[in-house]
Amino acid sequence: MRIKSEKDFFAGLMFMVAGIAFAWGATNYTIGDAARMGPGYFPLILGILLALVGLFVTFEALVVETEDGEKVGKFAWKPLFFIIFSNVVFGICIGGIPKLGIPALGLIVGIYALTFIASLAGEEHKNREVIVLATVLAIISYVAFIYLLKLQFPVWPSFLTR
């Protein structure tokens, strides 16, 4: 069978791999049933559904004819690097790295760092827009996670709150 849409084919494979990984990972937790769901129930069902979507997209890529075959373009390394790096920096800001002596910088600093680094992934970078976006995200995150959900993680740098 010939691949008629490369983009859909590889997207479907990616969905299937991610779905299978989530479903498999969920088996390490208590699954339960629909009436008494355990912590692994939702990730298992979600993983299965994602794998099924991937199977459908992959099948469609093999059956439905496209004009140009929808070839996969060149790999976008710059956006990939900055998006992954921004998430790593955010994680470090939230938890710090105690073994290296890096203190937790908190949610607010983490959101600003995440937003600024991720904005470098795009074609254009406007500091004013990034500052506004980071501020809005910081306010919404504070209200949602700290005020409403009452989650317990650092909001400000640990050296400021002692």
Automatic annotation (TrEMBL):
InterPro entries: DUF1468 (IPR009936). Residues 10-154 form the DUF1468 domain. Keywords: Membrane, Transmembrane, Transmembrane helix. The keyword Transcription regulation does not apply. The chain crosses the membrane at residues 41-63, 75-97, 103-121, 130-149. It comes from the Bacteria. The keyword tRNA processing does not apply. This is Tripartite tricarboxylate transporter TctB family protein.
